[in-house]
Amino acid sequence: MKSVQKIWAELSVKEVELSEEQKVELGLADNLAKYAKGVNPYINEGESLISSAEKMLNEIKSIKSKLFSTANEMNSLADRSASDLVAFEKAAKELGIDPNSNANYKSASKAFDAYAKNAQKYERYAKEL
Predict the structure, then answer these.
(1) I need a labelling partner for 20 at 20 to 30 A (CA). Which of 37, 51, 93, 124 fits?
(2) Could you read off the pLDDT of 85-128 as tens digits, one per residue?
(3) Within 13 Å of residue 90, how many CA atoms lie on the same side as its CB?
(4) Does the pTM of the predicted model rise above 0.85?
(5) Which helix (H) or strand (E) holds 30?
(6) Radius of gyration of the chain from Cα atoms?
(7) Is 97 helix (H, G, I), strand (E, B) or coil?
(8) Do the beta carbons of residue 71 and residue 122 sit within 8 Å?
């Protein structure tokens, strides 16, 4: 029994030297452990980016809808102003008056151009989104 204790005492005092192959295997195992420990920060970052992207996409969808709505309203206003401009031109000509001599006609004509031009711009931009 004393010989077992003696051998055990000698083994616990001695340094155990590993072969190069065992050292490589332990090094690889350490690397593998690093992968497992390091995955969570990347997952958290990816999930955060997805969440941000989803919020941005929802905001873009909302903006797109508002652009189409604004363009539709502007097209409607352009149609109504064009109709009123034509009616005013006709009435002015019947009276022998140049419609361009009227300040309201001029400003309404410019507004018609702005409505039509910007409505097309907003539609085009919304379609690109």
Answers:
(1) 37
(2) 999 999 999 999 999 999 999 999 999 999 999 999 999 999 99
(3) 6
(4) no
(5) helix 20-94
(6) 40
(7) coil
(8) yes
